[in-house]
Amino acid sequence: MAEPGGGRPVTVSDVQQLVRRKDEIEAQIKACYELLEGQKGVGMHEPLVDAEGFPRSDIDLYQVRTARHNIICLQNDHKAVMKQVEEALHKLHAREKEKHARDEAEALAEAMSQSQSLPQAFAKVNSVSPGSPASISGLQVDDEIVEFGSVNANNFQNLQNIATVVQHSEGRPLSVTVIRGGRRVHVGLTPKRWAGKGLLGCNIIPLQR
Q: What is the pTM of this model?
């Protein structure tokens, strides 16, 4: 049987086809051995002549010779198919490994290009009180702030900048953009009085770059 696929990559279907061929050959070999067994248990090597050198008359010599010849041919075919199965499986595994490595490389390249295109953060959320305006808006600990209302990395000088924006925006939603897990996330934050301290209920620290 020719090697599956010729110039194209080996597929799972090719391997299955080879395995079916192997099973067929094994069934044919078994049938030939059964035929020999039916001829007085003559195997592959028992003599086909009697003690005086005459062809045995108690067996069908033609059938025995044909069965023996077929078994030899089929065993060679079986060996060849087994080699093809092994090679096909090896190629299949090698391709899967290559594909996995390529997928990983693409994912890494995408993550790197994303991190390069992300805006610069200037502050970080290091605590959020439960039930606070910050918590209700969806802000999370370790969110890195890239925009807080009108404040961004270009005009941020100190935390007083954020405090001023918060005081002037009490009761009005502020647009806040953060980096979370390597992705940009937008949050609508409304500074207001609540049961706890301050108008936000979160602690923000400047980022040391």
A: 0.46
